[in-house]
Write a structure and sequence with these properties.
By secondary structure, the protein is α/β, with parallel strands linked by helices. Helices cover 26% and strands 20% of the residues. α4 links the parallel β4 (58-61) and β5. Bound molecules: NADP nicotinamide-adenine-dinucleotide phosphate. The site of NADP nicotinamide-adenine-dinucleotide phosphate has 22 residues, from α4.
Length: 196
C-alpha cells in the first residue's frame, strides 16, 4: 500500500514519520522547494510532483476546499484509489453545495475513488502531537458510504497510533464532522482520547 498527502499537511506527515511509514507529499510547487521541510520531518517523507504523488493507493486531500477540483484534474480516473478528505468547507454556503455534505462533492469530483472523511476534526497543532496520550490514543473520526474503505483507513489510523471511531455514512454520522456554511459539525475540534 502506498500513501500520499496532497497539500503539505505537516501534522499529517509527522504522524507518518513517527511510525517510519513512507508517504509522498505534493503541493503546486516544485518538490525541491519543500524538500528541506520534508527532510526535517523525517526520512520517510518524500517530496514529489503532484502528478507522481497521485500514483499512491491512499491519498490524503489536505488542500483548501476551494482547490479540490484542481487536484481532481490530475488524473482522468481515480478508480482503485481511496481519498481521505481532510478538508473543512467552512464558509462555503450550503446553497453552493446543494445542501449536501462537502465530502459528497469531493467524492463526485474524484470519480471512481472510494472516499473517507477523516483526520479533519482536529486543528493542525493538535494533530501534530504524538497521539499516545496518558496511556490512551487520540481519537480520529471516520465517515464513509463505503464500509470497506472506512475499515481500510481505520487500519491505517491504528497503525499511525490513533484510535479511529467510525461514524457511518457521509450524510448520517458524517455530518458531525462536516463544516456547514459558517457553522462547524458538533464533533469538530473535540480532542478526545480513548482508553482501551
Ligand atoms: N490548519 C488546520 O488546523 C486544519 C485542521 C483541519 C483541517 N484542515 C483542512 O486542511 C486543508 C488544508 O489546510 P491548511 O491549513 O494546511 O491550508 P494551507 O496552509 O492553505 O495549505 C494548503 C496546502 O495545499 C497546497 N495546495 C493548494 N492548492 C493545491 C493544488 N491544486 N494541488 C496541490 N497542492 C495544493 C498548498 O501548497 P502551495 O504552496 O502549492 O500553495 C499548501 O501546501 C483545508 O481544507 C483545511 O480546512 C486544516
Amino acid at each position: 500500500m502506498t500513501y500520499a498527502i496532497i497539500g503539505f499537511g505537516k501534522a499529517l506527515a509527522k504522524a507518518f514519520a513517527r511510525k517510519g511509514i513512507e508517504v509522498s507529499v505534493a503541493t503546486t510547487r516544485d518538490p525541491e522547494s519543500f524538500a528541506a521541510d520534508a527532510g526535517a520531518i523525517g526520512p520517510t517523507i518524500i517530496p514529489k510532483k503532484l502528478t507522481d504523488a497521485v500514483e499512491a493507493d491512499i491519498i490524503f486531500l489536505a488542500v483548501r476546499f476551494e482547490s479540490y477540483l484542481d487536484v481532481a484534474k490530475a488524473l482522468p480516473t481515480w478508480q482503485g484509489k481511496t481519498i481521505v478528505d481532510v478538508t473543512n468547507a467552512y464558509g462555503v454556503s450550503p446553497e453552493e453545495l446543494g445542501g449536501q455534505p462537502s465530502s459528497k462533492f469531493i467524492e463526485q469530483a474524484f470519480s471512481g475513488a472510494k472516499l473517507v472523511k477523516g483526520f479533519n476534526h482536529l486543528i493542525a497543532a493538535t494533530l501534530d502531537q504524538d497521539p499516545s496520550v496518558h496511556g490512551g490514543r487520540r481519537v480520529v473520526f471516520l465517515a464513509s458510504d463505503d464500509d470497506a474503505a472506512a475499515a481500510e483507513i481505520g487500519t491505517l489510523a491504528d497503525n499511525l497510533g490513533f484510535s479511529p471511531i467510525k461514524l457511518g455514512g457521509l450524510s448520517e454520522g458524517g455530518l458531525l464532522v462536516q463544516a456547514r456554511g459558517n457553522s462547524w459539525g458538533h464533533l469538530i475540534f473535540k480532542d478526545l482520547v480513548k482508553f482501551d
